[in-house]
Amino acid sequence: MSPSAQNMGQKHIAIYAGSFDPITYGHLDVLARARCLFDSIVLGIGINPEKSPMFSLEERVTMARTLVEEIVRKDPDQAPVTVEHYHGLTVDFATARGASAILRGIRNITDLADECQLAVTNRHVADIETIFIFTAEQYAFTSSSLIRQIAAMGGPLERLSYILPPLVLEQLKIKQQDPDSPLTRMAHDQHID
Q: With respect to CATH, is domain 11-142 assigned 3.40.50.620?
């Protein structure tokens, strides 16, 4: 049987993995455009041991599910999307879900250099391909790290409405007002530097 005949009945599942802390319009743009390329997509929210999260894993999953439901509802004929969280390596999560590819959003040339190295490693280690989708131009310099920094330093969140959905902005405002939130620690760490 030819390889193309073997693949006829195979579902093409993509894993779109990240910390999504917070999820942005750039992330959602990549996801929406990828839906025509796969049979289904799993948005996998992982733990990055190198980052201190602003939102808990549960908060990130809840926000992502709400925003993904909106995308799917707008265009129900495209691939379905589920939101899951995971611990450990993304390639292990992708393999466990039967994924044929890892989906990555690329904002700029710096992202591309970093992501290419990771893509080659993933292919070598787990025999899984990486598919790159460039974000729309207006999100080319969107950075969750910068968003966290602006929020921690008490910056005007309304000015971020072009890159953050209203749900995320609302949750950021709640974090800014909570003296026990991770933003307080982040602001303190910024002053130390």
A: yes
Phi and psi torsions of 7, nearest 5°:
-80, -10
For residue range 18-72, what is the model confidence (pLDDT) as tens digits?
999 999 999 999 999 999 999 999 999 999 888 889 999 999 999 999 999 999 9
**Which residues 6+ apart lie within 8 Å of 71 measured at CB?**
28, 31, 32, 35, 81
Tokens of 15: 């894993």
Tell me which of 35, 104, 107, 148 is the catalytic residue.
107
Active site residue 107: yes
Instruction: Please pick, among 19, 27, 104, 181, the residue that the annotation labels catalytic.
Output: 27
**C-alpha span between 44 and 84 (Å, rounded):** 5
Owner of token pair 């319009």 = 25
